[in-house]
Write a structure and sequence with these properties.
This protein is about 60% helix and about 0% strand. The chain has 10 helices and no strands. Helix 2 runs parallel beside helix 4 and helix 4 packs antiparallel against helix 5. It starts with a helix and ends in a 9-residue tail after the last helix.
């Protein structure tokens, strides 16, 4: 292992491969954030001390192993130092399955099997709200094919009208037939 990565590894007295939810220490969070910032070629932060403090506080609320996993993912996912709003979902994704397993071990089946759902309207409530046609074609007249064709024909210029327009506006014609730039086919 490389020297900077060895500094990040937990000591032998750590919990090993067991993924518990014990939050990391401030020193561990600082070492992860410091390593993360060293991965970017340019770190142009408005206030680096505040950024470090906020990101360390965020990481300190999560386990060590989750912080290392996010460090590995963030090094390749971001071109610039990530915002807190970008790091929090990565950390939550890491600990989600451990929280789920803890609920499973507790035997809390209701929390596992029932998902929180908002109250959804019934079919009759939707029909009362939107009407018989579900809000489609309300207030519009039906138009025959002939009427549609006539309306479109009135909106389109004839070739004679187009020719007259460009004869009156030669600068517009020149914009249309401008010679190609060198190198274009």
């Amino acid at each position: 292992m490389s020297e900077p990565y060895e500094r990040l590894m937990p000591s032998a007295s750590g919990s090993g491969t067991v993924r518990n939810m014990e939050p990391m220490s401030r020193d561990q969070a600082y070492s992860i954030v410091q390593h993360l910032l060293q991965c970017f070629p340019v770190v142009n932060l408005t206030n680096p001390d505040v950024y470090m403090a906020e990101v360390c506080a965020l990481f300190a609320g999560y386990p060590w192993w989750a912080g290392l996993a996010v460090l590995d993912a963030a090094k390749f996912a971001f071109k610039f130092p990530p915002a807190l709003a970008e790091l929090r979902p990565l950390l939550e994704d890491q600990v989600r399955y451990v929280r789920h397993a803890a609920e499973f071990r507790k035997g809390n089946w209701d929390a596992l099997l029932t998902q929180p759902r908002e109250k959804r309207p019934t079919y009759d409530e939707l029909k009362a709200k939107y009407g018989e046609n579900w809000g489609i074609d309300q207030g519009t007249k039906k138009e025959t094919v002939e009427q549609t064709n006539a309306r479109w024909a009135s909106q389109v210029q004839s070739w004679d009208e187009i020719k007259q327009f460009y004869e009156k506006n030669p600068e517009r014609w020149n914009n249309l037939i401008r010679p190609r730039e060198a190198g274009l086919k």
